[in-house]
Amino acid sequence: MTKKYVSDNVHTEGGGSFDVLISNSHEYSEKKFPEATGSISSWKLGISHYTRLSVTDMTPSEDMRVRFSFPDRSVIILCFNLEGPMEWYCGNEDFVSVLKPFECCIQFGIEKEGHVYFQRDTRHRHVCVYLHDRNYPFLRSALEHSGLRPDELPVESMQKYATSPGIQKTLTGIFSPPCSEAYRACYLEGKVLELISLFCGDILEKNNVAANISMDERVCIQRAKEIIDEQYARPLTIKSLAKSCFISETRLKSGFKELFGSTVYEYLVDKRMEVAFDLLSSNQYNVQDVCWRVGYANGSHFSRQFRKKYGFNPGKIKSSD
């Protein structure tokens, strides 16, 4: 049974209820839940008035709904999902948006409250940035250049995009900061500016450049990317992907390059190499096992591609331990 956390302040009532207030009254806050491992953390950032970062890394032992309260003011919210499904309810129960892993969204309007649904036994990692667009003129300019005008959009307006490799790397840095607690806020301020910049450059600008790609084609191309992410070890081809996604080979090749900044083949190889790196780092598999697991029959070809991406042979990961 789903638990719904709806209290205005922290208190217990019939098994417990909690609330997370997004405000500028605290420099830092962390909320932990008895039904979950991990936490939701929130930082007030000094880069401008009302800029706040919320970082969630949580694995609940049962289904949960966590309600967020916001100041009654106009805001822009950037949400980036790294792991687990993110179901975001805004205002009323009828408005629901679901972000898949490696998706992000931008939302406009006056927010008073909303809540996020967390699935049991699933790790959820996402980052949200709350800000005033008036304090970020370059962001407003980028939005307007892409045809998005916050002042003219409805309160519950939400635009979703696939995250870029650059954004994914920045998100990983936010979850694993390399500095001590004393310098954490300064480090995160830099990462927030980096996220906003990457969102403008990697997503808004590329979507504007790729304006000649229809929405139906975007759905098909996104599906091709998902197939690669899920079936990277299989002998995927342009022809098989195009057939599975109901799009022509020509449009798949050109559209994929425009939307994701790499060819289908380049993306497939990168995906295989990233998985190979993780498998080798786990110390559970030898190089030949990993070679087969990521879809290569030829060990020399696999090693050549690995060396091209990382600058060293795959066996060096094992031998360095």
What key attributes describe this structure?
11 strands, globular, about 25% strand, eleven-stranded mixed beta sheet, single chain, alpha+beta, about 325 residues
Distance between the termini: 45 Å
The H-and-E topology, N to C, reads as EEEEEEEEEEHEHHHHHHHHH
Give the CA-based shape: globular
Largest sheet: 11 strands, mixed
Oligomer: single chain
- Determine the number of helices (DSSP H or I, runs of at least 4 residues): 10
- Number of distinct beta strands: 11
Residue share in β-strands: 25-35%
Mean pLDDT equals: 76
Kindly summarize this structure in a few lines:
The protein is α+β, with helices and mostly antiparallel strands. The chain has helices at residues 137-145, 165-175, 184-209, 215-231, 238-245, 249-260, 264-281, 287-293, 299-310, 315-319; strands at 3-5, 19-21, 28-31, 36-44, 52-60, 64-83, 86-90, 96-99, 103-118, 124-131, 157-162. Helix content is 39%, strand content 27%.
Describe this structure in words.
- It is a single chain.
- With 321 residues, the protein is of the alpha+beta class.
- Helices cover 39% and strands 27% of the residues.
- The chain contains 10 helices and 11 strands.
- Strand 4 (36-44) and strand 5 (52-60) form a beta hairpin.
- It starts with a strand and ends with a helix.
- The model is unreliable at 1-24 (pLDDT under 50).
